[in-house]
Sequence to fold (148 residues):
Amino acid sequence: MGIMESMDIGGNALRVHGKRIDIHAKNIANLDTPNYVRKIPVLNATDDISFHGLLNTMKEDVFGIGTLPYLQGGVHMSGVVEDPTLGQKIYQPGHPDADENGYIRASNVNAMVDIADALMAQRAYEANLALVNITKSMANRAVEIGRS
Fold:
């Protein structure tokens, strides 16, 4: 893997985990908003890194031409899904969002879950930021060696 591929993986991961943090922040901000449905980001690996996928890649490369497969790696956000759990029904007949029986549906956001998810996303963001910074210092060091 080259320096540019490493920077691409790190930069892409920074974007994805930044979006994760935004989604969880929006969930937490709408904790008390009636009828708000919690959003869940869906992340996938860029390449098929399952055992079956790796064997298929190796079948083509290792057994065919004798080289180990090169997997790009990385993460991408394939979308956002809504949490299927229902919020609690609250009796508020004067509320503009109340149904014909006078009930509103409270948000289904669990603050502790979203705070924990946001912290995990923040740590993933920081780890990928460290990857980008290390790669950048390696590139700078290579340039300095080339000048010598």
Residues 24 and 115 are 7 Å apart (CA to CA). DSSP finds three helices and four strands in the chain. Residues 3-30+39-82+109-147 form one domain. Helices lie at 3-29, 51-65, 111-147.
